[in-house]
Amino acid sequence: MDILIMSAKKQQGRHDRPKAVRPPQQGRSAQTLERIYAATEKLLERKRFEDLSVAEIVDEARSSVGAFYTRFADKETLLDALDERYMEASLRAVEETLDEAALEGHDLEEVVQAIVAAVVQFHRAKPGLIRALVMRARSQPDTRYQARGDRITDAIFERIHSLLLARREAIHHPQPKTAIALGFFAVLTVIREVTLFPEGPAKGLPVRDDEFVTELNCLFLRYLGAASTTERTKKGGQRS
Question: What is the pLDDT of residue 170?
Fold first, then answer.
């Protein structure tokens, strides 16, 4: 039993051990590094990360295998670096898109729509990369990926809670905080299924992104105990 525990701890340590990307020493080297990142993201739009070879990546990046290994110990180091970049971009997007000052004066429905539209747009921008990171986090638990994921999730939930609770009077769910958390989680799950796994259960879903955002907006608002303008208009028309 002790041997099994020691072996498990040793394996856990391998996952936790950081693999640093070797920083570029000059401008040309920095450009090569950016091309490798861009090439990998492009290839991930049509292939799984596990199926990518270093040769394919450097060919797409107009670089060389030697240049790759000058910067990365292996493919896993590259994915770890992409995850770090994605986290930083996500945090900036949350701050810019869900800026409380910019949304001041907007009602609950408008804020919910802004949140849903931002999440859909962000997933549409780099679905291949996000899919690879999601699959890696699920299939091979690694504290670095988990810590970054938690940091992004915490930042998003903190901002969304702040924005929506500031409009608490329009939320009629008996437990607003719970409704906000579960409502957003439900919306996020649907967005990921539709944008990241189009060949899955959502295959053939005949909806444009503008319709998609509108429907998710209604779903989120309904769970919060609020009605969208569309629903209120329909009810008004039925009464008349």
Answer: 95
